[in-house]
Design brief:
Blueprint: H1 2-24, H2 27-30, H3 34-51, E1 58-60, H4 62-73, H5 78-88, H6 94-114, E2 118-128, H7 135-145, E3 148-152, H8 154-172, E4 190-203, E5 214-221, E6 224-241, E7 245-251, E8 257-264, H9 270-275, H10 279-288, E9 290-299, E10 301-308, H11 310-315, E11 337-350, E12 354-367, E13 378-380, E14 385-391, E15 397-403
Length: about 400
């Protein structure tokens, strides 16, 4: 629950930033994809609430999940499309959505070209060679998502195809995401698999000195503690605090991408903080943050999370896409396709230099069946917290997570 809270807190912070920016300028002056970013982030927060129901650390890429499902949405019609739009907070007008994702991809590619951080996003569509996919669907996937198109044989060689898809994901994520599709995830009924992979690596704008990293106490609960490597430095960063939390903004080189950490005030306060995670609260917290000197303590950690999201997405409102009544007639005309599963896996490592993170999503489609001087605050993340990795310009949440035990 601690890591879940951390993710929620981070998400909360992101939404605050979005709202604050939006209140200052018209959406069109911020970024052409502002409405889609807001919808994606709303879905990210709602999904976080679903995934945080289980205990333990948590990490995922809402951007990857939304991207893979946006490609799938391009093939949906009728009630299936309506439910997907409502659940994922997509605009009903498909052209608006897909052009926004294209704009975001171009924006992120520009950041990669600047060379200050690594941010690579790739899409692919794997099609059963006997399926006649509509050219209109292929055109959207190729032109708006720059997806590679691969014709494969699920019917008699699905295990070989599974290995091929996993190898593609591993390559796109610099070997950080392995075996995205586990044994048994594909069968002869599969007709399409839509994949998204995202890889990020950024050094802190001001690195932590490894010599300052020491074993420190991390409180798993008010009664239970462990020792873990805790990084330490003083820095001029955006910071806010109130009775419920401390908020810290740690930029990566170039300051285009940042990690935002939301630390509850109480050692067991993550659940309460998650309950306060609303768009209005997030906006207020971000508005209150300002640049000041902060003494920062942050644990080093590495974690991997994997989810099968079919049941979660059904409970969130898009059950039709997984049923015999699914309508993906914009992919192929027979209405014989439905989503059989959505599989997601994510990795993150945080150390003195910076952060490396990667994630991949597969959608399997088959046949139906600065102020006055103040005392320097201490931000010591020595109990469960939420964190996220966010694009500062568009507000896009690229990764979200929580740390309940940094040693696991």
């Amino acid at each position: 629950m601690q890591l879940t809270k951390l993710v929620l807190n981070i998400l909360f912070y992101v939404f605050m930033l979005i709202c604050f920016t939006a209140s200052a300028s018209p959406a069109s002056e911020i970024h052409p994809a502002a409405d889609v970013v807001k919808g994606n982030n709303t879905f990210a927060l709602q999904l976080y609430h679903k995934l945080c129901a289980t205990d333990g650390n948590l990490f995922f890429s809402p951007y990857s999940i939304s991207s893979a499902l946006a490609m799938t949405y391009a093939g949906a019609s009728g009630e299936t499309a309506d439910q997907m739009a409502a659940t994922l907070h997509f605009p009903a007008e498909q052209e608006t959505l897909h052009s926004a994702f294209a704009n975001l991809a171009s924006h992120f590619h520009g950041m990669q070209e600047n060379g200050k951080i690594a941010l690579h996003i790739a899409n692919a569509l794997w099609i059963q060679q006997s399926v006649k996919v509509l050219e209109s669907f292929l055109d959207i996937v190729k032109t708006q998502y720059q997806a590679g198109i691969f014709h494969v044989n699920f019917q008699t060689a699905y295990e070989e195809v599974r290995a091929e898809i996993n190898a593609w994901v591993e390559k796109q994520t610099h070997q950080k995401i392995k075996e995205l599709l586990p044994l048994g995830s594909l069968n002869a009924l599969a007709r399409l698999v839509l994949t998204n992979a995202i890889y990020f690596k950024g050094n802190w704008d001001t690195p932590f000195d490894p010599k300052q990293t020491q074993e420190e106490t991390f409180w798993l609960s008010p009664e239970k503690e462990i020792l873990t490597p805790m990084m330490h430095r003083s820095a001029m960063v955006k910071y806010a605090e109130n009775d419920a939390l401390q908020l810290l903004h740690l930029p990566y080189t170039g300051e285009e991408i940042s990690m935002i950490v939301l630390l509850p005030g109480a050692k067991d306060g993550l659940t309460d903080l998650e309950a306060q995670l609303t768009l209005e609260n997030l906006t207020q917290w971000i508005t209150q943050s300002s640049v000041r000197e902060v003494e920062v303590f942050l644990p080093k950690f590495t974690l991997t999370s994997q989810f099968r999201l079919a049941d979660t997405l059904k409970t969130m409102g898009m059950s039709a896409a997984f049923s015999e009544n699914a309508d993906f007639s914009k992919i192929e005309a027979s209405k014989s396709l439905s989503i059989s599963d959505v599989i997601h896996k994510a990795f993150v490592e945080v150390n003195e230099e910076g952060t490396e993170a990667a994630a991949a999503t597969a959608v399997i489609v088959g046949l139906t069946s600065i102020a006055e001087p103040q005392p320097i605050p201490v931000f010591k993340a020595d109990h469960p917290f939420i964190f996220l990795i966010r694009d500062s310009q568009t507000g896009s949440l690229l990764f979200c997570g929580r740390i309940m035990n940094p040693d696991l």
